Amino acid sequence: MDILDYPLVVQSRAQRASGAGRLSVRQVEEKTRISTLFQEGCAKLRFPIVPGNHLEAVMINSAGGLTGGDAMHWDFALGEECSAQITTQACEKIYKAVPGTVATVSTHIDAGRDSYVAWLPQETILFENADLKRSLNVNLAAGARALIVESTIFGRKAFGETIGTARFSDQWRVRQKGRLLHAENFLIGPHAASSSNRPALLGGNRAVATVLLVSENCERLLEPARLIIGEQGGASAWMGKLVARLVDLDAYHLRKRLIPLLGLLNGGVELPRIWST
Description:
The chain has one domain (25-276). It is built from 3 helices and 17 strands. The chain has helices at 192-196, 222-229, 251-265, and strands at 18-28, 31-41, 43-46, 55-61, 71-78, 83-88, 92-94, 103-111, 116-120, 124-126, 131-140, 145-154, 167-176, 179-188, 207-214, 233-238, 241-248. The strands form 2 sheets. Strands 3, 4, 6, 7, 9, 10, 12, 15, 16 and 17 form a 10-stranded mixed β-sheet that branches. A hairpin with a 2-residue loop joins strand 16 (233-238) and strand 17. The N and C termini lie far apart (65 Å). The model has no long low-confidence stretch (mean pLDDT 91).
């Protein structure tokens, strides 16, 4: 048999999504304005017109979700006395990963002297067999303030989704003037269902949110924050930071408390409109 008679077998490599977005802002005539902007791959940034002097940036993953082998990187820098809110166009969906692959999302934020940054992405939704490694590094200069939230949904109750197996790693590092102010390591999986059912974790709930406020006078907001959170969560304040955690049945019920809490902690600035659309 001639070699040309053999069937041709082509081993193709699955296409992976990757994206990088970088944004720096500076103050121009007492308003926060774009200084530099870079977008690559499936990472996009859009800037709605908003009242006031702050800037609002909306992150978009044009791939429509992440799976094993996908990678996203975001980098934000605020100049002195700038104010910016950073959010997402929609919930980020983390789909089933091929064994041995992991989706990665890394974010780096530098906030200059006396600036204010609100990191307000919408929920991350994990699907069965999802595998996600996420990191957030924030560097605050003297006098800089920050509001940070991350919400995670372990399967959507309205769609009847259940999560038995999934892996999720989330690492935060927040520094001010070079000193480590707040650190978190969250790790769950591969048996996410049995782990999340423990009372010390989610207690059988599907939705969880962590909120961090770094501000000089955040202690005065502690009692109002606890009233909003209620019994399904808690809050503490010390060393110039307020940390709150909330759990609930699903994203809908979580938002009923999370949105008022963020409104309380956001320094009088309205939340991005996209949170209510």
